[in-house]
Amino acid sequence: MAQRGSWWRMADTKQMMERQRVLADFGALALRSDDLDAVLTEACSLVARALGCELAKILEVEDDGATLFVRAGVGWQPGVVGVVHLPMCERSSETYSIEAGVPVFTPNISKEDRFEFPRFLLDAGVVGIVNVPIFLPGGKAFGLLQVDSREAWSPGDDEIQFLRTYAAILGPVIDRLHKVHALKEATDRNRILLLELQHRIKNNIAAISSLVRKQIKTAKSADARAELAVVGERVEALSLVHEHVYASNRGDRLSLRTYATELLRRLLALHCQAGVRLEASIEEVDIASDTAIPLGLILNEFATNSLKHAFSADHTTGHPVIRIEAGLRDDRIWVHICDNGSGRTLQPPPKRGSGTGLALIAGLSQQIGARPNWCFENGTSLHLEFKRR
Ligand SMILES: Nc1ncnc2c1ncn2[C@@H]1O[C@H](COP(=O)(O)OP(=O)(O)OP(=O)(O)O)[C@@H](O)[C@H]1O
Ligand SMILES: [Mg+2]
């Protein structure tokens, strides 16, 4: 029987060190990568190199518990790795190794009478073969690490010990990657559900918005029409958040710059106050949708007030402007919105049925953890600062 050289049977210090290095390299890779197939292939390649073999593979027990699948491997002709399925029959060395939970080796296939070997092994010229079972934490069998030699091979204790250590590391590594994969799948599923939910919310708000528009048309008095128009604008502001969240395709975050600018631009267009200019200077910051909703409503109320109250002919100095600036400082978002209108001290208006705007701004600011800071010099300005979530 052809034998490997004596270096193979008796690990010298250099070989031992090489194997230690292989274990360390593999440990480092296993922590870095989230790709199970890549990790298993690298595991095969490292073990083959450490033992001086051309061929190695990892077999996985399939869900039916009765078949093994060649999940990864090195040195094989195409048509083996990722393709071959083996029945876990009684006379297979793989089945025996998994069931007994011990490494099993066949020094020379042609002289083996305990087991039968699959055709593809013989076709590849395999003579000696070592099976080492891989168990997941908790004891469930994942499959096997197989090292195949094209020469007869009786592995020494040190080789078997090395392979057992290697397989013992593989178990928890595979388990971690399974969990990462399951978590990713669950996250993807939730993201799809969230997008679907947002889509429905967006449609429902659009339905409410069109209902309000119809009501405006049929309302009897001018007052009723004006009040319904304000409700319509508030619904419109809500609808915009959902449109942006849905369009951002990121589930729960959106760009403050795009969202705030579009909200104000649409509001100005709605009021047909072509003379009022919008100036926006907003840093590219993304915000959570549950912050965007209250913030959008605050901006909506502020700008509606500017359009309604600030620019009467006798108070306006210069061109009427609504200006918004915003950015991020020390993980806090700041927003400054102002007009250059009459800027008087804000008082709840005497007329019944109105005066919701300022109360809404106070309530919504509290909701995002900001204290509204008003200023009435050369117009009205509102400054808000809140923690970015
Ligand atoms: N930018 C502004 N410039 C001048 N006056 C303002 C401005 N914002 C608010 N005001 C004054 O403050 C009052 C209170 O505003 P608030 O938004 O609470 O009520 P409203 O706008 O009158 O009614 P509603 O918001 O319910 O439609 C307004 O009636 C107005 O007199
Ligand atoms: Mg108002």
Compact summary:
The protein is an alpha+beta fold. Helices cover 49% and strands 20% of the residues.
Any idea what the CATH superfamily of the largest domain is called? GAF domain
What's the shape? Answer: elongated
**Low-confidence sequence ranges:** 1-10
**Major β-sheet strand ordering:** 3-2-1-6-5-4
Output the CATH topology of the largest domain: Beta-Lactamase
Describe the largest sheet. 6 strands, antiparallel
What would the average pLDDT be, to the nearest integer? 87
Written as H for each helix and E for each strand, in order along the chain, the element string is HHHEEEHEHEEHHEHEEHEEHEE
Quaternary status? single chain
Please indicate the percent range of residues in DSSP E strands (runs of 2 or more): 15-25%
Number of helices: 10
> Any idea of the CATH class of the largest domain?
Alpha Beta
Strand tally is 13
Binned, the helix content reads: 40-55%
Question: Any overview of this molecule?
Answer:
- It is a single chain.
- The chain is of the alpha+beta class and 389 residues long.
- The protein contains 10 helices and 13 strands.
- The strands form 3 sheets. It has a 6-stranded antiparallel sheet with strand order 3-2-1-6-5-4, sandwiched between helices. Strands 8-10-11-13-12 form a 5-stranded mixed sheet, with helices on one face. The chain has a two-stranded antiparallel sheet with strand order 7-9.
- The chain is elongated.
- The structure holds adenosine-5'-triphosphate and magnesium ion.
- The site of magnesium ion (MG) has 4 residues, from helix 9.
- The site of magnesium ion has 4 residues, from helix 9.
